[in-house]
Design a protein that fits this description.
Elements: E1 2-10, E2 15-23, H1 26-35, H2 40-51, E3 55-56, E4 64-65
Antiparallel strand pairs: 1-2, 1-4, 2-3
This protein binds zinc ion.
């Protein structure tokens, strides 16, 4: 999976940290959605919710102030 990185303030560390999030390969999901006649769309939505959002690379916290 693609990983995005940028700077952000971690509320857990109370410091500026490098934060990351797992990027979603939307092209791949779009192809799979077409191939499965829309069934994959549900997986796509679930994955976006579960893996979306920024996290601290040091403590793994999702408490990020952007
Ligand atoms: Zn942290």
């Amino acid at each position: 999976m693609i990983e995005e990185k940028r700077g952000g303030f971690c509320k857990q560390c109370k410091e500026n940290r490098v934060i990351f999030r797992k990027g979603t390969n939307h092209v791949l999901h779009l192809i799979l959605t077409i191939l499965t006649s829309g069934i994959w769309l549900l997986v796509w939505i679930v994955m976006s919710i579960k893996f979306g959002g920024w996290r601290c690379t040091i403590c793994g916290s999702s408490e990020i102030k952007s």
